């Protein structure tokens, strides 16, 4: 997979978030929640106008260019928020975390800001650079789509259902508009053509004839997917208050963060139960039987989703903003870290395998299974 060049113009515009956030933090009128959301909408509107006037050709070629540039700006803002909440910088976004989105000050909020300000930021620069150079970015887009969607699907409902539901400000409704973005962007990204492969029909046929014992990497992934599915099922039962001793011991001795009233960890485990668990079962099927052409795309989507989710979950489980009684106990820290790291790593290995040797998942032409004499007739 080719890595597109980063967009220097996008980088310059995104770094404009630094002086803008610093200046706005010293405007006294922004102490009112309604003023915060109006100013935020105004800044995003002005930013879009600037992008449209400076990069009209790129937007005409692919409208997602404007989305990536605007989101790169907000990614820098999120990184500033995370660094400020952890005490590394001061005087930038106090007004927004107090009167805009106070739930960003939670441990979960801080870590989704870190992820957005680093991983998402690099993805935005790479995808914007690909559009400027008229190159493909479908694989990067699918990874971003899964990561972005998972972040919203846990964070937004968690704000409503958790203990910060009384802290919702008008800026929350501006965030809801972000839900429309992955829907539109997903349709456009999935509609892009896939990267062409160099496999001939005979090569595809030869690869798909191999059994699982001849594909030890796939066999290992299937074993992993089965174990990961059971882990997702188990943690889903834990947050659903399963009365068994195993669930009781796990939630109190290994992951007490699942009891945190902020609701983010409970929602995250339910997302694993209802979405990751079925995917793992379907992925194991696709690794067993050839021709499941849908797996490479969805493996990238779920790799992004699980990567973002596990980063936020693991970080919040150990962060100082999480009450001490809900943090991972020191004597079980190794077990917690290894199990959750493996849970995050597996989908990335699956996506890498699908991109590395995709012949097993291609649909071979019907005549590929016929003999040479029949093909010549």
UniProtKB/TrEMBL annotation:
UniProt key word Ubl conjugation: no
Assigned keywords, A-Z: Membrane, Repeat, Transmembrane, Transmembrane helix
TM region(s), chain numbering: 30-52, 64-83, 103-128, 140-160, 172-191, 212-234, 269-287, 299-316, 336-356
GO molecular function, a single term: identical protein binding
Entry's localization field: Endomembrane system
Superkingdom of source: Eukaryota
Alphabetical list of InterPro entries matching this protein: EXPERA, TM6SF1-like, TM_Tm6sf1/2
Record-level GO BP terms: lipid homeostasis; regulation of lipid metabolic process
GO cellular component, as recorded: endoplasmic reticulum membrane; endoplasmic reticulum-Golgi intermediate compartment membrane
Record domain EXPERA: where: 61-186, 217-351
PROSITE patterns from the UniProt entry: EXPERA (PS51751)
Mode of membrane association: Multi-pass membrane protein
Similarity comment: family membership: Belongs to the TM6SF family.
Protein name, as recorded: Transmembrane 6 superfamily member 2
Organism name: Cricetulus griseus
Gene (UniProt): Tm6sf2
């Amino acid at each position: 997979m080719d890595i597109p060049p980063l967009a220097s113009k996008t980088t310059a515009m995104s770094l404009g978030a630094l002086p803008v956030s610093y200046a706005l933090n010293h405007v006294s009128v922004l102490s009112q929640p309604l003023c915060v959301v109006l100013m935020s909408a105004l800044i995003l509107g002005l930013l879009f106008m600037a992008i449209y006037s400076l990069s009209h050709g790129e937007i005409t070629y692919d409208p997602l260019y404007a989305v990536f540039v605007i989101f790169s700006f907000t990614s820098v803002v999120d990184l500033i928020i995370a660094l400020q909440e952890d005490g590394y910088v001061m005087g930038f976004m106090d007004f927004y975390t107090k009167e805009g989105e106070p739930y960003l000050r939670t441990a979960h909020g801080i870590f989704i800001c870190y992820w957005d300000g680093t991983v998402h930021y690099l993805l935005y620069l790479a995808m914007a650079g690909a559009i400027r150079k008229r190159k493909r970015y479908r694989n990067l887009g699918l990874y971003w789509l899964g990561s972005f969607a998972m972040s919203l699907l846990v964070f937004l409902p968690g704000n409503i259902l958790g203990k910060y539901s009384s802290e919702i400000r008008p800026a929350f409704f501006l965030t809801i508009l972000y839900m429309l973005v992955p829907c539109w962007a997903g349709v456009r990204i999935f509609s892009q053509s896939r990267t062409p492969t160099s496999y001939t029909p005979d090569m595809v046929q030869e690869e798909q004839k191999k059994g699982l014992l001849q594909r030890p990497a796939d066999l290992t992934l299937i074993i992993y997917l089965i174990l990961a599915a059971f882990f997702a099922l188990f943690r889903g039962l834990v947050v659903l208050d399963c009365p068994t001793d195993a669930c009781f011991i796990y939630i109190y001795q290994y992951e007490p963060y699942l009891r945190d009233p902020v609701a983010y960890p409970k929602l995250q485990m339910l997302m694993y139960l209802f979405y990751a668990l079925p995917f793992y079962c379907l992925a194991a099927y696709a690794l067993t039987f050839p021709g499941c052409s849908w797996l490479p795309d969805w493996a990238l989507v779920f790799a992004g989703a699980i990567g973002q989710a596990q980063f936020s979950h693991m970080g919040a489980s150990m962060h100082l903003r999480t009450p001490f009684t809900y943090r991972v106990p020191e004597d079980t820290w190794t077990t917690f870290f290894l199990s959750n790291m493996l849970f995050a790593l597996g989908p990335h290995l699956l996506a890498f395998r699908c991109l590395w040797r995709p012949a097993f998942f291609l649909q071979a032409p019907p005549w590929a299974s016929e003999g040479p004499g029949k093909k010549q007739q």
